[in-house]
Structure formats: C-alpha cells, structure tokens
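=== RUN LOG ===
request id: a7f3
mode: sequence -> structure
chains: 1
length: 553
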Amino acid sequence: MYQSDLDIARSVPLLPIAQIAERAGIREESFEPYGKYKAKVDLSVPGKAPGKLILVTAMTPTPAGEGKTTTTIGLADAMRRIGRNAIVAMREPSLGPVFGIKGGATGGGHAQVAPMEEINLHFTGDLHAIGASNNLLAAMLDNSIYQGNPLNIDPRRITWKRCVDMNDRQLRFVTDGLGGRTNGVPREDGFDITVASEVMAVFCLADSLSDLKARLSRIIVAYTYDGKPVTADDLHAAGAMTALLADAFRPNLVQTLEGTPALVHGGPFANIAHGCNSVVATKMAMRLADYTVTEAGFGADLGAEKFLDIKCREAGLRPDAVVIVATVRALKMHGGLAKTELKEENLEALEKGLPNLLRHIANIKDVYHLPGVVALNRFPTDTDAEIGLVMRHCKELGVNAVLSTVWADGGKGGTELAEEVVRLCEEKNDFSFCYEASASLTKKIESVVTRVYGGDRVQFTAQAEKEIASLEELGFGDFPVCIAKTQYSFSDDPKKLGAPSGFSVTVRNVRVSAGAGFVVVLTGDIMTMPGLPKVPAAEAITVDENGKIQGLF
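=== RESULT ===
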C-alpha cells in the first residue's frame, strides 16, 4: 500500500521535545518548548569543543529527484546507529515551494524531520519575522521620503524591495504610493520572496545578536541624488528590525523520525541567495555533537560553492567531509532521456550523463581540496550494471560511491555511507577557497565560472561593468560573490544539461548586500520572485473535518 511522506511521518510516534533536548545535551534551562515537539534553544547553550562538520551536496538537480535532504537526515540517523553522536543542521522550508512545485524541505520516506507538516508550514514563525523585519525597513524608507526626504534619497535609485514568502509573479514589478499625497510618494517598486531577502542572508550569517544588529544597520536600501549609499542605520531602523528577529534568531530544535536531534534554522535559496542554514545553528550543533551533518541547496555548483566560499569564509568554518548525492535516474536525464524513459536500463544515456556528477566530484577534490563520497540513492528500477558503471567512474577519480536506501529503510539504509563518512573525517585535508578575498570582483566571478562551472568566459553587460566599478569604488571589492544562477545547469542556460563546455555566462546586474557581506551577481534569466506552476501543489492541499492537513506530499 502506497504511503505518502505525510502518512509515514504520522505513523511514527514522536518523543517529547524535552527528551530530544536531553539527547542533544541541552539542559532544561537552555530551551523553550513551542508545543510538544518543537523548541527554541538559547544562544548561550553550553557545549564542548567543536566536532566534525559534514556537508551534504548533490549533482545538478533534475525532475527525477536526487534526495539530498533525505540523505542528510538519513545520514545523521545512520551515524547514531553506528554509535556516533550526531546532530543534523538544516534550513527551514519556504512556503513558496511548499505550495508551488518543489515541495517541502523535511526529507522523505523514513528519513524525515518532524513534525513534518508544522515545519513545512508556519513552524515557529521565523520566516514571518524575517518578512516583517524586511518590510519594516521598506516602510521606514518610504516614510522618510514622505516626511520631507531629509536624507536626500533619489526615489529612482531605491534598491530595497518588500517581500512575501510566496511564489507570486504578480508582485515582481508594482507601482505604489498612488491615490494622492496622503498615500505616499508614487514610485516603481517590487517584491522578492522572503528567502531571497538580504535580511534572511544576514540572519543566517550573523553569529550573535550584536552581530545581527550591526549587519542589519549596514544594509544599503537606496542612493542619494549625489550617489551616496543610504543604509538602515541612516534610517534608524536596525534596532527595531533586530527586536522583530530576536526570538526567531534562536535555533529551532526538532527531531528525525528516529529521534536524532535536528536544528532547523534559516532558509535562503541557493539559486538566488547563499543557500545554507544559519551560522548560529551550525556552530551550536558542532558544540553539542561529535558530528554535525548539514546541507546546502541545489547542486554543488550553487549551494556547496556558496557554503564553502561565503559561509565558511565568513564564519571561520572548516568542513571535514563532503557527501555528493546522485541517482542513476537523474544521471540518465542528464544523458538525454525524458522522465518517462527512466525505468529501463540505458547504459548509453547513463554514460552521457555521468560527466555531470564527475565534474562536481572533481570540484570538491581539486578546487576545494576536500575528501568526498558519492551517496548513490538506489531506486528499484536501477540495475546492477548501471550501479556498477557509476561506481567504476567514481573510483577512477579516487572517490567511493556508496549505495543508500535511507528513504525506504531510514538510518539502517545509510550505515555503510556513515562508516565511509567517519573514515573521511579522520583524513587531513587542505581546504581552500575558489578565489582569494583580495581578488577583484570581476576575477572572483571569472574564477567561479571557469573553475567550478567549467565555462570558458564571462560576459558582462555594460550595466554590470558600471555597477562593479561603482561597488569597488565604494569599498566592497573584498566581498565574496554570491552568484544567482539557474539550478538546472552548470551554465546560465537551464537547457544545457550534463557537463557543458565552451560556454559563457552572462552577468546582467551586480548589487551589494552590505549587511550580509557579499556581492550578488545576477546571471541569465534568474528572478528573485518565483511564480507558481500551471498546477500548483496548493490545489491538492486541504484540511479534513478533524483539522488534519491532507495532500501535503
């Protein structure tokens, strides 16, 4: 009988959150329960010397699915099954994908964090707090202009947008302040999805409340008529913004279906933001456990690159091992097969698609100099010949590929993977970044495109060149770059599957996130406000007469 992820999650009795806190080494005075199965953990929770840090990333995603979040959760469960003290540290889901097409972010099958439906919906309200903080700044900005414009803000050079945590293309470009003088100053405006807000990036990169406030104060919202940046500090907004975020800034404690403690906190997208959970949650997990298993969004060219070049650089983190998730099905799609053709053995398509995975492996080994393992999620239709082909190619690059069945079997299906990860964590590594902080912004972008994506060159629009020159003149040249790019290809063209070569990446706009501490680079047709698909997932979601949610995955 078919069971949905929600059916499986509801079939497992959860432990009271106090027991999970005790299992994680969190004292009673250091957490605040949010109902029976969720809690907020104080930032000052006592801990030990930091344990090992394991990053879970993936090949370039396809509609066939790879199972990165599921693997992250199943690996943490498997680590505990082999006697290791492990905690999982993950991002919070956005309502946009939940009601759109991608789904939630709580894993799947028997490798989930729970309570699944609460985490995928409002959870503890963190994303609402981030949206409120973002929109407070927008309101104070427009109010300053309305109240005589003492900061000399040029309304044509406002860079700050409002946000909402929903896929809503109608809000990408709006005109507001209409209806007469008492309703504000008319101007062109727009919305980002909350997870693309700089407030979310700041939230996830700050390491303390004081750092959070300082970063918020540095956010640039507009420029004056004479070209000077206007910040949240200039608007005296940072204090109130921090107040809105103070409770949300405490990491959320939940559990996996096998009772492994999980810190789920922050949720920036990896295609339009930096795609990693909060620094405070990652560091807390490392203080509490011997092994912290975390993930970064989408493929390794996006989430892992930003985790390593932005988050690790900002937070002083050093990963001990990297897991690259792949499936035979997804590799065959990169080899040219349609989703409807994946059930039959096809070694030719698999051979054509394998270079995608191999490029990700090579990047982890040769660009970042980190030890890695491929977690090969096995599907019932995968043949021994197909699996053997993947394993042989990985071995030729000096990386083991290990079968994983955590979706079907939970932690038991990931023990071999866990053993390999423990082995890798004992190896010494020479972790290095893709580029030096002292390099120019142009050089940093070119380094990512040529060294990580495998492209030949970068083409900058005249507007992007002008923006880069302006940002370097303002003193932001030492910032890392956060490249916004399609998740479906190494290139900026989602139709270029596999491991394309000879391509160029077009940079059309560049803007600074001064609070987050990076420069955002917009490529291709990437947008910071997604839209809903023709048939949104929301159409299948409802609530029965007993108040139980139905249709949620």
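=== NOTES ===
The CA atoms of residues 154 and 227 lie 9 Å apart.
The chain has a mean pLDDT of 95.
=== END ===
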